[in-house]
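Researcher: Re-running this chain for the archive, since the previous output was lost when a drive failed. Same request as before.
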Amino acid sequence: MAFKYDDLILDQSQRLQAERAEAVSELEAGRQTEDIARCREAGDRILRIDNEHRRLEEIASQFVMRQQAVPFYGDDVSPRDAQLAAKYGLTAAEIGIARNWTSDERVSPEDKFREYAQQRAKYQHMRATGAYRDDQGTIRR
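Model: Regenerated structure tokens:
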């Protein structure tokens, strides 16, 4: 089985942390023995390791963002529908609704998803402003 990218990133992070701990102990040993060359070398290693770790964190952040960019909707959703859902911010449950809201063959899938997202946004706005209420017709005592 192939390695996962997040496992590789975690391994590199742990390796860098171990190297940094070693460099810090070397710096402390140089400080105790008043060896300026040893302190400089250890300090340089710490700076290099910190820069490498910062870069690794950037890579990890980019990896996570890419993973979240196109969510997995399941095997029953076509790649095209998944792209459209991600583009318009639809959930897995909304894909079927957006895909089938009209039987008019002249309406493209892109238009169906866009129109559904627009109508959903309109509905959410009306609920937020009080123009549409879900409790209409309920009896309170």
